[in-house]
Amino acid sequence: MTVKLITIFGGSGFVGRNTVRALARAGYRLRVAVRWPHTAHFLRPMGDVGQIEIVQANIRNEDSVRRALDGADGVVNLVGILYQTRRQKFADIHDDGAERIARLARRSGVATFVHMSAIGADLNSRSRYGRSKAAGEAKVREVFPDATILRPSVIFGAEDDLFNRFAGLAQIAPALPLIGGGDTRFQPVFVGDVAAAVKKCIEQPSARGRVYELGGPSIYTFKELMTYMLDTIGRRRLLVPLPFGLATFMGFFLGLWPKPLLTMDQVALLKTDNVVGRGPQRVATFADLGIQPVAMDTVVPSYLRRFRRHGQFEESAI
Ligand SMILES: NC(=O)c1ccc[n+]([C@@H]2O[C@H](COP(=O)([O-])OP(=O)(O)OC[C@H]3O[C@@H](n4cnc5c(N)ncnc54)[C@H](OP(=O)(O)O)[C@@H]3O)[C@@H](O)[C@H]2O)c1
Question: Residue 195's closest CA among 42, 45, 46?
Fold first, then answer.
């Protein structure tokens, strides 16, 4: 069998590095397309010598995307942003950038294309993030009808931006905010399961042209997630409800920082539950891929241990 070459955009990110590991273990040749190759060499030891190639590409640049796709049998697009900057707008990344990869992949004869979207992708979403993800999905589908679209809920894992961020905040702050009262529901999904789904979608012809919503085995409100995180790191903190109006006001000012803790758009996103199957149609899920998602409790304590007062040496953590 000839070893297939898969180009991965966004391979240096949180989902990306776990996907690179999963695909390298499965024996694929990988070309990881990143904006700054020198920051992505840590990926190479995940494969055998020469198995993982790092190339330069910015999905806002047509030529660099075309070069990254040259000779590829499959493509995975994991590029996404949570907030906009002067150069990186949601429309450029989630919408036009996704379309560019799909169109050029189609043109260069790529057989399989897996596109990472998100639960909350909706043309009528209150948030720009959600609208741009939906616009990207539609364009990808238009130019590459066989593309597989994955929509995860919030993703957890060793380097996540969810538990690590709030556990870090809990180390220094006496209280944590519950935006909108903390009632928004989430279905946290393990990054290893998301990576396994990407691999299955590359390999299973039945996944072509389908949309999968990926959620873990349980649904939690935001307040329950914060309580769980605090219990896990053995700290007590006040959980303070923050009405949406006030959070939006704070998001306006915090959103002016280069790497904002909170933006108005993120507050808007929090107004809608982030769980599998909210839409009117039945969507495919992990069950259709033959994957049993793991529970938070089997993974999260192992990487939140460092936030405990005495780290790994705390008695209850040994
Ligand atoms: N994490 C979650 O909870 C979650 C939930 C639902 C959906 N998703 C989706 O899953 C995907 C991966 O998310 P993640 O958490 O892994 O995000 P991440 O860690 O921020 O990774 C994003 C990746 O995109 C790359 N990137 C950004 N702008 C780029 C550009 N102009 N050209 C080329 N590459 C660019 C980044 O590389 P550099 O910045 O180094 O160039 C990085 O490798 C995204 O589409 C995200 O929307 C994530």
Answer: 46
